[in-house]
Amino acid sequence: MKVTLDMSAIKTIALFQEVTQANVLDYYENDDEIFFVVPEGQVGFVLGKDGSKIKRAENRFKKRIKIFEYSDDMEQFIRNMIPETQDISINDGNVRVRIKPADRSRIIGKGGIRARAMEYFIKRLHKAESLKVV
Prior knowledge:
By secondary structure, the chain is α/β, with parallel strands linked by helices. It contains six helices and six strands. 42% of the residues lie in helices and 22% in strands.
């Protein structure tokens, strides 16, 4: 897995790492939220006791922050991003994730912003073609 970052991304990641003392593999940012991918086993470390580190980071960035735990296995990585997953099908790099209709709006996000972030990560980190959440 090789990820190329621009200077803005490097600065954002460096600030997040300074606040949380965690490693970051990749990140995605939109107007409302910042998404970080951290190595396996580091999610609890990033959150801190009672969420103290993540709250401090959200205050610094003035945005909500969402953390995803990386896995070399694409299916497990998707389950880490979407714990409510009922079924995953992967066909020629096209990923289709089935969830309960009640969870749909929360997982996809307003205007699909969270779904775009998750698709961005599986394309960059696992070379998938697309992600569809149904």
